[in-house]
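Q: I'm writing up a methods section and want to include an example of the input and output format. Could you take the sequence below and give the corresponding predicted structure tokens, formatted cleanly so I can copy it straight into the document?
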Amino acid sequence: MDKAQAERRIQELRQIINHHNHLYYVLDNPEIPDAEYDKLMRELIDLESQFPELIVPDSPTQRIGGEPLAAFKRVTHREPMISLADAFSEGDLRDFHRRVTSVVGDQVEYVVELKIDGLAISLTYENGILVTAATRGDGLVGEDVTHNVKTIKSVPLRINPPSGKFPSVIEVRGEIYLPKEGFKKLNEEREDMELVPFANPRNAAAGSIRQLDPKVAAKRPLSTFIYGIGYVEGIQFETHHEVLEFYKACGFRVNPHIKLFNSFDDVIDYCMSWREKRDLLPYEIDGMVIKVNSLQFQKMLGSTAKNPRWAIAYKFPAEQKVSVIEDIIVSVGRTGILTPNAVLKPVNIAGSTVSRATLHNEDYIKEKDIRIGDSVIVQKAGDIIPEVVEVIKEKRTGSEKEFKMPHHCPECGAEVIRIPGEAAYRCTGVSCPAQIRRSIIHFASRDAMDIRGLGPAVVSLLLSAGLVKDVSDIYFLKKEDLIPLERMGEKSADNLINAIQDSKKQPLSRLVYALGIPFIGSKASFLLAQAFGSMDKLKAATYDELIKIPEIGTKMAESIVTFFKQEQTNNLLERLKNAGVNMEEQKRSEGIRLLENLTFVLTGTLEKYSRNEAKEIIESLGGRVTSSVSKKTDYVVVGKDPGSKYDKAVELGVKIIDENEFDKLIGTKQ
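A: Here is the clean output for your methods example:
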């Protein structure tokens, strides 16, 4: 067979195999036996082996696990993957409906979907080809798991809508899950190999996708349901239901139980009907999702820093079990709050063994009259966090013991106080090891200052040796301080010092998050850094200024003001500043004037930035990035080995710049 004949047969085989993949993995309606499918696949593999130049990224053979990955890259989502607010009762749902109608009026349609218990994923397609699959991460930045997701056969490697509507870029959002039967089989295999079984299907799915070796993911029966959309370019939709129909036409797996309603009473009835039917499904669900159908209404309703206002997740009532409180112990958190925790007789709830449950605070314990030795009803709040629901007082024998909060910190012995108006007790020790250790671990964590090598074990060593007393001390460590520490050789010491130095360049948003301001997560930190531009301006921000930021609520604003009033906060920031830690964010107000209304196209391999980083910079400075060159394009940024976009720019006379010119354009100092 010559190359031309092979090319024709390869194209034919790809079409046939993709057709049968869609029937089997998306529609659950296979037409041919497995043996015949395997024969077609072997023929394609053989032909591509003979003519490797004919292999393309979206070939069915490219789903097979490749070489193990060294690590996961970061991926910045073009549109944030924010999580949904929860509803636990009919009253919560009706409150949501009232909030919606107060903004958009009474004529509202809702799409109701099953809430699949799996791992959220974002699939980016450019010109119909899957280019990136990323986890949710912190909602702004996720992990690149493309190699693993490509092994899932219900994920199309290429989309080709029959309608002719074709997006140049689209972020497809959905859930990766493990069916109940597949989960059972996987755990049986793990037990046979004397490995610890997975706690539940969600953990198994997440563990499978985060394997460094794609061959592991390829062996597991993972599947998907697609339900949402992020960034999109080149196509417009009017409703969420239209988006889902588009996905079906493109070959994605969309849940068959999705319904459209114009009556909220019908929405509630449908949600409640699945409380009893959930166990009949071949996969796990933990609730229902209600979304406003109109995309225009969604835009009008907007979002908070954490949740969209146009959608809500109704969580099914939690599974409850009876256990015994064997002891109550107190832990000290990063901010010095003492939290009582119940040590339980182990019990299996919602697929995992529970032996601890938070008791929140002393008021909670007194309100429920919880005592050591009590038989109690335990559940997982939202199917995640174990909690004690109530005491079974009829089972008391008289041997139960009342619990009292300690007067001194169990970690450092300092006095414990309860601040008027607060339910929590706090340790007053300024050098409490529990607080310092947790604050340093948080400060160095991946989503904060990202100091590689400064994990919990190393932090404990530094504290034990008296080398650090707060996070600012990190930046005054020397190599000779580290080498004497246990398991800290010369190379490890060099690596850690370099990582500490590199962290000084992190953007202000990372530093704000790293400081651990109560109620301020990574998304809110990003918004604050963009709004104020520098640590000095953020420190001086008033409550009224903070509350003007739409996503910053009253509780968050009060926490920020209180945090920056503290003398120890200012002392810490002064030391960090003296150490050379960056205290500035790219100036958004100037950036908007720099790149406002300018359109960019990126082509070739950039040395200083990843494609996503360059795009993020342009958009943060008011510009726009598109995937194709036209007369409306203002700049084409060219890296190594540019493609046809460079030729198109030359043809149209569009301004072409390299990375150095790009740096000057965005105001980066050389």
